[in-house]
Write a structure and sequence with these properties.
By secondary structure, this protein is mainly alpha-helical. The chain has helices at 17-23, 32-48, 53-70; strands at residues 26-27, 72-73. The protein is built from 3 helices and 2 strands, in the order αβααβ. Helix 2 runs antiparallel to helix 3. Mean pLDDT is 84; it is low at 78-89.
Length: 94
């Protein structure tokens, strides 16, 4: 299996982690809300408390490890066209 590179932004103006994953063809599944809560908490700590940059970086590293742990390929959405076999056929006249 080949390695793929996936990028995430954790800043205030970034989209949610799930939407960032979806844009790249992945999903965080049932863990998306949990991880988004962690991201929001990190942002709150960053701007609400006098948190040193080194501590903020450690928090983001831990969140990133969890994202890598839970990320998986999003299921492919296959469009299935309805066939005309359900329509009634008119009898042929001779």
């Amino acid at each position: 299996m080949q390695k793929q590179t996936v990028g995430f932004g954790y800043g205030v103006l970034c989209d949610t982690l799930e939407s960032q994953a979806n844009e790249q063809g992945f999903t965080l599944g049932k863990h998306s809300e949990e991880l988004e809560g962690c991201r929001q908490a990190a942002i709150t700590l960053r701007f609400g408390v006098d948190l040193p940059d080194s501590m903020y970086d450690k928090i983001l590293q831990r969140i990133q490890k969890r994202v890598v742990k839970y990320i998986k390929s999003a299921p492919q959405k296959n469009k299935v066209e309805k066939s005309n076999s359900t329509q009634q056929r008119k009898p042929k006249t001779a």
